[in-house]
């Protein structure tokens, strides 16, 4: 039973991955890859070029620009999502009337396919007629070019991604909070600890291990988040909201001619960056005595 | 839990915060729903529905390729879910019951695939599909989605199988079942919750995926929903009325499935995670 399993996994993951790495070392593009058009079969004619693609990418500013924004995007998204998720989870963990209603309502964004929600936001963000600008206009404030101005577009894509990510955070953190024994709080209150001290010294350590996992997961997801940016701004205006993943996609499927080799090289670089991040992150946790 | 009573002010603050969160969460989808019942010309009015109409829905279903896209998506999703769960279950079982060299690295690989950016796989997969003539074919997308969903699902399934006592396997063997018979007749029925979770996860992955669907499926009648919805609002023109109606029809089944599975999903994810 093991042989077929290993075979399937090898075929499903191993093959595309090795093939991707190989392609990144060639000069494959639209014109020279193997393909079938109708009944005509055209064989591949691309050649091995070694690390040339990587050299070219790393020496151009576009990669570093995109990397800078991707880092900013990931930090902002994960930071805000985590803070909001934890805050709302702490609120939901109190005894409060209508708690189950709030809980269900707040995870609604998780239950809707992301591409649908993104279009809902796109409608709200519409510069001329969108609801957000109409409300601003009504308040006598001039409308904001939500998706038309580089800075506002960045704010908008982050806002939408936070909106999409908070429900998962709430659910994960609520689970962690409920595992903290209530006696701890009672004991702390007896000893005269204020709300802030209780939060800092009981709640935060109590949710530590769950937090470190969800922060890692959420960082990886956000780093690779494709639909929000692709559907909301297509990376624009200009390149301003293009993160590494959307740019790699653009190289092989939007731009013409399609540059498969460079796109694959971007993909490999992204993977390396994520592996590096995960290693550093795990080491940092271990140094702080986290058994993980 | 807390013994002291909250002050009215703190209570009001708590409710205000929760209400604000709820409003932010609910408003965009609700506004989408509201807009879908407005005539196309009033799509951007701030008023609630003044002239209630089903015109958008009628238009989307009768005059566009929406039903074709829906069908395509359905084929892809069902194909991915059925095959994916089957492969994930067998893999998870093998990982849970057999010890073999290279097993720990394999477990790691399954988890690390979560980290694979779509960018590293999309080009090789695209070229492979082009080579095999599988572009614009549901089968091509099904295979692609399997590469995303199966590793993580297999990892989750292992967690589930670990909770089923090995004694049951042994009793099966004593009764003369071969390993596959044991798996199929005894273990699989016990792992139903796990199968539900992985099935749901696969369903959502395939239903909501955008990048591969956009790249691999071209031509109006080959699109899946993720690609189709983009055709309503693009640089050539915007048909917001149709977009909203189509979005509602896409979102409702997903939201209903999610509503049922949500509790199990969270439990299942953590079961898989803690049992590694």
TrEMBL record, chain B:
InterPro entries the UniProt entry points to: BP-dep_ABC_trans_perm, MetI-like, MetI-like_sf
Segments traversing the membrane: 74-95, 107-126, 138-157, 195-215, 240-261
Domain ABC transmembrane type-1: 70-261
Keyword match Ribosomal protein: no
Cell compartment(s), UniProt: Cell membrane
UniProt KW Membrane keyword: yes
Coiled coil: none
Top-rank taxon: Bacteria
Membrane topology summary: Multi-pass membrane protein
UniProt-listed PANTHER family: MALTOSE TRANSPORT SYSTEM PERMEASE-RELATED, MALTOSE_MALTODEXTRIN TRANSPORT SYSTEM PERMEASE PROTEIN MALG
Family membership noted in the UniProt record: Belongs to the binding-protein-dependent transport system permease family. MalFG subfamily.
Protein name listed in UniProt: Carbohydrate ABC transporter permease
């Amino acid at each position: 039973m093991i042989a077929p399993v290993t075979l399937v996994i090898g075929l499903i993951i191993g093959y595309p991955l090795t093939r991707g790495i190989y392609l990144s070392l060639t000069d494959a593009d639209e014109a020279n890859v193997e393909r079938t058009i109708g009944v005509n079969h055209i064989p591949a004619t691309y050649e091995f070029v070694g690390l040339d693609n990587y050299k070219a990418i790393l020496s151009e500013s576009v990669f570093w620009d995109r990397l800078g924004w991707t880092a900013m995007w990931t930090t902002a998204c994960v930071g805000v999502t985590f803070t909001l998720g934890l805050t709302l989870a702490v609120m939901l963990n109190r005894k409060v009337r209508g708690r189950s209603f709030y809980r269900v309502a707040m995870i609604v964004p998780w239950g809707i396919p992301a591409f649908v929600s993104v279009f809902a936001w796109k409608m709200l963000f519409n510069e001329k007629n969108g609801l957000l600008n109409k409300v601003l206009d009504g308040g006598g404030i001039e409308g904001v070019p939500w998706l038309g101005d580089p800075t506002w577009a960045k704010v908008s894509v982050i806002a939408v991604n936070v909106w999409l990510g908070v429900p998962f955070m709430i659910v994960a953190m609520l689970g962690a909070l409920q595992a903290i024994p209530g006696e701890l709080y009672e004991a702390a209150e007896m000893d005269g600890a204020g709300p802030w001290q209780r939060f800092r010294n009981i709640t935060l350590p109590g949710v530590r291990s769950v937090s470190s996992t969800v922060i890692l997961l959420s960082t990886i997801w956000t780093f690779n988040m494709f639909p929000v940016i692709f559907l909301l701004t297509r990376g624009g205006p200009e390149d301003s909201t293009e993160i590494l993943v959307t740019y790699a996609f653009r190289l092989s499927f939007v731009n013409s001619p399609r540059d498969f080799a460079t796109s694959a090289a971007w993909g490999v670089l992204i993977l390396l960056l994520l592996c590096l991040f995960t290693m550093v992150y795990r080491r940092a946790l271990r140094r702080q005595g986290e058994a993980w | 839990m807390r013994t002291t009573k909250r002050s009215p002010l703190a209570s009001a603050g708590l409710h205000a915060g929760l209400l604000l969160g709820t409003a932010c969460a609910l408003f965009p989808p609700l506004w989408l729903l509201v807009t879908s019942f407005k005539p196309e010309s009033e799509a951007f009015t701030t008023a609630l529905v003044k002239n209630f109409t089903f015109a958008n829905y009628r238009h989307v279903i009768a005059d566009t390729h929406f039903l074709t896209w829906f069908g395509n998506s359905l084929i892809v999703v069902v194909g991915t879910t059925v095959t994916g769960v089957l492969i994930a279950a067998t893999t998870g079982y093998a990982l849970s019951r057999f010890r073999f060299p290279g097993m720990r690295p394999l477990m790691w690989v399954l988890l690390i695939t979560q980290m694979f950016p779509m960018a590293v796989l999309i080009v090789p997969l695209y070229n492979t599909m082009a080579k095999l003539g599988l572009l614009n074919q549901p089968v091509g997308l099904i295979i692609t989605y399997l590469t995303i969903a199966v590793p993580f699902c297999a990892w989750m399934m292992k967690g589930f199988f670990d909770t089923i006592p090995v004694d049951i396997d042994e009793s099966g063997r004593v009764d003369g079942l071969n390993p596959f018979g044991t798996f199929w007749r005894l273990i699989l029925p016990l792992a139903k919750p796990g199968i539900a979770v992985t099935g749901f996860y696969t369903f959502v992955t395939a239903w909501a995926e955008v990048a591969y669907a956009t790249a691999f499926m071209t031509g109006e009648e080959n699109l899946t929903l993720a690609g189709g919805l983009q055709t309503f609002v693009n640089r050539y023109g915007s048909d917001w009325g149709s977009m909203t109606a189509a979005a509602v029809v896409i979102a409702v089944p997903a939201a209903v499935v999610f509503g049922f599975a949500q509790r199990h999903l969270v439990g299942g994810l953590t079961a898989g995670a803690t049992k590694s």
